[in-house]
Amino acid sequence: MRNLMQLVVLLLLFSIFTSPTHAKSVIEPCNSSDSCASLLSYRLPWDSKLSEISFRFKLNITDLLAANSINILTTPSQGNQILAAKTLLKVPISCPCVDGIRRSVSTTYTVRPADSLESISEGFGRLVSAEQIKMVNNIEGSLTSGETILIPLPCTCFGNSNNGASTVFMSYVVQSGESLMSIGMEFGMTVMELVSINGLGHPVVDPGDILAIPIPACSSANLNWYNESLIVPNGSYALTANNCIKCTCRSSINLNLQCSTSGLDISCSHLQCKGTNLFIGDFYTNQTMNGYCNVTKCIYRGHSGRKIFRSIVNTSAHVRCSGMKDFGSLPPALAPYPSSVPSTQLSPSCSPYPGAFRPSPEIGALSPTATPPMISSYARLSPTDYFFLLHYFVAIGTFPLYLFFF
Ligand SMILES: *[C@@H]1O[C@H](CO)[C@@H](O)[C@H](O)[C@H]1NC(C)=O
Ligand SMILES: *[C@@H]1O[C@H](CO)[C@@H](O)[C@H](O)[C@H]1NC(C)=O
Ligand SMILES: *[C@@H]1O[C@H](CO)[C@@H](O)[C@H](O)[C@H]1NC(C)=O
Ligand SMILES: *[C@@H]1O[C@H](CO)[C@@H](O)[C@H](O)[C@H]1NC(C)=O
Ligand SMILES: *[C@@H]1O[C@H](CO)[C@@H](O)[C@H](O)[C@H]1NC(C)=O
Ligand SMILES: *[C@@H]1O[C@H](CO)[C@@H](O)[C@H](O)[C@H]1NC(C)=O
Ligand SMILES: *[C@@H]1O[C@H](CO)[C@@H](O)[C@H](O)[C@H]1NC(C)=O
To answer: Which of 20, 182, 203, 378 could serve as a FRET partner for 229 with CA atoms 20 to 30 Å apart?
Structure first.
């Protein structure tokens, strides 16, 4: 790691002296052909529709919504929703290795009559400079309207790891008035961490510099999934298994993927755990005579094509089941993201369905054929429940009590 950091520092210095604008950015050398999940922190240069933003970055709008934890189901005409200038959005991109360094080269832009290199750079939130666009596209004179140019975007992988913890790195453009201290506070990091990750020679940044910000992530690595691995940054979700499953990463205590049915109106099968009336993500609890709280949960285990794997997991712990019944303690639909869109704007409603057995505001409509089970308590896990449950999984070592139903 130290050697890698030194290399980064050297490359960084190199880039300072060779870049015409003197803007600093981390350069991660690479030699493998793999890509990783990465994020851009995109500050909207002007008011934009979500559909325009996803078009600008050649993304599926669902991926943009997922990265920002915007509920797909409660934002029906999401594409037309206008976000205000200066809003900070997370843009998910894949980060490949191109000519020995990590960068994304899958975004293109079709030049319009009034465009300049500067205005295009501004349109991409200065994640790419005018000079870089010029260099990559070998632009000599002026731009030709209708011409399609490549927009290289900065990204880093660093093995999706920061001090051994699952991490997704986000490229962040320093704004005027910001310092490492203020950025660190915004993202919950110390100046030292930012300096070390970005290989900065001095703890100083200037407007336009691009920093790699580590975002803690939930990984499927030790969930023992079939043919699938997923890494989801904190404060976002991902759709998987042909959009049938939604896996959320949102916790202040531990970072565990919480996967459940997406509730999207698409044909999905194998969502219910055999022999139960539980769908993936559902669970029920039962207080036994001797004071144990038994939890039976239907969990996601990966997919292969259209086939979705799931298992029943039973755990029991010597605690009261109360709290599990609390349908009201549901996590917020939009996790806070510094300087981001107010949650009311993006996520209109998040109230539990009164009296329902399946309170799933983040999931929305569920299979109409599902009948409410006649059991003592029934709810989705809140983050606190999750903490206690996992605490017990670990504490009593009953986690691998799987029953497979394929
Ligand atoms: C590839 O890069 C890694 C670090 O980025 C290095 O440890 C490894 O030796 C390199 N392999 C080759 C074949 O260059
Ligand atoms: C967008 O979604 C479609 C269909 O779900 C998929 O084929 C395509 O690869 C996706 N594009 C991106 C950029 O993820
Ligand atoms: C899934 O993994 C198994 C081994 O665990 C392998 O035999 C199978 O070919 C894989 N299927 C797909 C679709 O990748
Ligand atoms: C995850 O994000 C939330 C806010 O979105 C934050 O409160 C929490 O501390 C983060 N967790 C970790 C492990 O960084
Ligand atoms: C809960 O436990 C009681 C006995 O303690 C039992 O009668 C009941 O059937 C159990 N319910 C479920 C859903 O397991
Ligand atoms: C609760 O779990 C324990 C151990 O897992 C088991 O012995 C007991 O029968 C379970 N009770 C109920 C009511 O499911
Ligand atoms: C899990 O618990 C349910 C009842 O609570 C029981 O029917 C089932 O057999 C249990 N499964 C395992 C693997 O213990």
So the answer is: 378
What is the residue-wise DSSP string for 220-250?
SGGG--BS---EEETTEEEEETTTTEEEEE-
Ligand 5 atom having least distance to the Cα of 373: 13
Low-confidence ranges of the chain (pLDDT < 70): 1-22, 75-76, 78, 252, 322-406
63: CA distance to ligand 2 center in Å? Answer: 9
The string of DSSP codes covering 123-185 is HTTTSS-HHHHHHHTT--S---TT-EEEEEEE---GGGEETTEEEEEEEEEPPTT--HHHHHH
- The reported pLDDT for the residue numbered 291 is 82
Phi, psi (5° rounding) for residue 314? -110, 135
> Would you state the pLDDT for residue 155?
97
Length of the chain: 406
CATH architecture label of 23-47+84-216: Roll (3.10)
Mutate to test the pocket of ligand 1, among 31, 36, 95, 102 (most ligand atoms within 8 A of CB): 31
**Residue-level pLDDT at 265:** 77
Tokens of 307: 């086939």
pLDDT at residue 41 in the model: 97
Ligand 6 atom, smallest distance to 314 CA: 5
- Domain positions in the chain: 23-47+84-216, 231-372, 378-406
pLDDT score recorded for residue 303: 94
Question: Residue with the nearest Cα to atom 3 of ligand 5?
Answer: 288
Protein residues with CB under 6 Å of any ligand 4 atom: 216, 234-235, 252, 255, 335-336
CB atoms within 10 A of CB 12: 17
**Tens digits of residue pLDDT in 98-111:** 999 999 999 999 99
Specify the residue with its C-alpha closest to ligand 1, atom 7.
Answer: 4
285 Cα: distance to centroid of ligand 7 (angstroms): 11
**Cβ count within 10 A of residue 391:** 14
**The tokens 């600008």 sit on which residue?**
56
The DSSP symbol for 25 reads: B
CA of 33 to the centre of ligand 1 (A): 12
